[in-house]
Amino acid sequence: MTVLRLEWISKRFGAIQALEEVSLSLDAGEVLGLMGDNGAGKSTLVKIIAGNYRPSGGRIYIGGAQKDFHHPIEARESGIEIVYQDLALCDNLTAATNVFLGRELTRSFGPFRIMDYASMNAVAAKLFKELKSETRPKDFVKDMSGGQRQAVAIARTRLASAKIVLMDEPTAAISVRQVAEVLNLIRELKRQQIAVILISHRMPDVFAVADRITVLRRGRKVADKPVSETTPEEITGLITGAIQAA
């Protein structure tokens, strides 16, 4: 089932044409690797899907219904969650508190309402178990590895029952062992029939988890191929322009 379809998406910033007539589709449980050099338009495209930017032209369909997002909250209400490169986590809070940040559970205590940490810890523990992560709800984020931090950010998307998760460079600047943890998290999202768009410069990571790779160059889509029908060498050529299109 197609959960996302983009038709002829364009975006201008003044005189700069950031995206020009980009079309793509994404099925439930599919991992799409979105690749391209710096300035190719990857982050702009993802921010349009997430409701951060409005396109200058083109149409967005979620589950077959046309959408016109004015704010990120509207995209979230349609089942779209984004995990930014900096993860937007609070180091001084626990994993569970970060998962529920802005959506905290409370309970009544006389005339007052207080934070229900026990319930938040229980739900977070269940989410981490579903993701097959060793992250513990009461651990502080400041003490976590890069892979555990990604687990917290991804658990937050699961709390919102996301249908589509957008991930911006999730394996940048972390160790080999932590990269393996993050790739396993992506595989687990796929197993749960959640669609993932993965922005990454790391070719081995994309080939390890993606079903399909879309390449952008200077705001245009130059390739959209199943991983089984391409090679890292071809993708590198498409990114650099040594190969014009495929």
UniProtKB/TrEMBL annotation:
Superkingdom assignment: Bacteria
Keyword terms of this UniProt record: ATP-binding, Nucleotide-binding
GO molecular function: ATP binding
Keyword Nucleotide-binding among record annotations: yes
InterPro entries, per the entry: AAA+_ATPase, ABC_carbohydrate_import_ATPase, ABC_transporter-like_ATP-bd, P-loop_NTPase
ABC transporter domain: residues covered: 4-243
PANTHER family: CARBOHYDRATE TRANSPORT ATP-BINDING PROTEIN MG119-RELATED, SUGAR ABC TRANSPORTER ATP-BINDING PROTEIN
Protein name in the entry: ATP-binding cassette domain-containing protein
Annotated organism of origin: Chelativorans salis
